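During the no-cost extension, the postdoctoral fellow (Dr. R.K.) reprocessed legacy sequence entries with the updated structure-token encoder. One reprocessed record is reproduced below for audit purposes.
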Amino acid sequence: MSDLIDRLDNNQELLDHIVDSFQLRIFWKDKDSRFIACNQAFAEDAGFKSPTEVVGKTEFDMPWATAEAEYHLQTDRTLMESGEPMLSFEQGLTRAGHRKSWILTSKIPTRSDSGEITGILVLYQDMSFIKDLEKESYKVNRAYQLLRSANKAIISATDESSLFKDVCNFIVDHGYKMAWIGRLESDPAKTIKPITSAGCEDHYLESIRITWADDALGHGPTGTAAREGRVVVNQNFLTNPDMLPWRDAAIQHGYQSSIALPLKNNSGTVFGVLNIYGMEPNAFDEDEAAKLDELAQTLSFGHEALLEREKRFDVMVKSVAALAATVESRDPYTAGHQNRVAKIALAIAQEMGSDADTCNGIKLAASIHDIGKMQVPIEILTKPTKLSKIEMDMIKIHPQVGYEILKDIPFPWPVAEMVHQHHERYDGSGYPQGLKGEQIIIGARILAVADALEAISSHRPYRPAFGMDVALKEIETQRGILFDPSVVDSCIRLLKAGQLADN
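Re-encoded structure tokens follow.
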């Protein structure tokens, strides 16, 4: 008998050794959810030196939060009521001396010989490492996606404001709490002025002051990034002493961490700072900070390229304005015609939902659509009586002449083509090419309606102004014949809304 007992004791020791060697945490509970046994790994998770210290305790004696304890008890009750195992489900667990972990848990009911449920066997495995890998993978992928989105925004941007706003929106759309861009001011206080933001901001930026001076308000991430031209990470608003001036407001808005990324011009001078806020502490690791710095560098490059485009565009606009003035100086009766057509064409394009870049191109083309009249004798342009066929034929050459003047200018829009086609008609009856329907580019179809509307409503050398009511009736009559129906419809909506006044 003693030999049998010895063998049983040895087998129990072996079993205990095997159980304690597992990476799995294992414990048993009775029907009242009191712990009756566990392995060493679980005891350590719960902050005890040995399994014997766990015996008799409840979930509320463990180091995890009350809410976690209540959740564990609820799953216990659900299992014992159903009698069905709960296999491989994820849940959170705050282990003693550790941050909250993710565990993969299975709960199995224990039964007596008669089949009555007597308690629960629980096994779980720490999945935090896998979760961390998934999180890191997500963050890297997020940074790549964000960089791609920013590149698209840079390509399509037409001005600084829309570029910065789009990038901030993309940042928030990719899971960050808030993003804003501040510009360095040259005032005595060296203020950093917020110029755009996205996400959960709720007047936060109005409630704080940030400078790039060497003082308390300049020693946060934003001011330091601006002053020193480097990336600065704040991993925790609550514990970082440099964040004291903004801590209360940040915590109130749910910001736990942040990163400040300097924006530099081509000479390396910092002109602004991109700020991104996270919803949890330690949200910006080294790899993510590097990718976000790449984003900031790309944004800086795009901003400089945009400024250069804007400079070239300004020169182009001034040149075009000079050309337009030259045309209209020859014909006092139609002075201002091109400018009025440009305003109407722009309004129609906007009403049709065209993007800002397209609208800019249409407005520019409209402002010089009659540039080809430079080659038409002034006597014909100002003739107060009906034109002869020969004279009319001379007028009709102006779209072709305008195209020849403009075709070699590197406009970022099809300006020459719009000028060339502005007298083409939807049914093919126009000139000089006899194009019809969608053979005519949309800008020229818009320009055709705007030109006709302005011409009918305004004074001409050979007749008085007919006004907008007559012009509207004529445009409606020619809908789908001379003019694109969709363009006419937009024009009518604008007129009825009072957004196109009499000239």
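The chain has 18 helices and ten strands. The two ends are 117 Å apart (CA to CA). The remaining legacy entries will be reprocessed before the final report is submitted.
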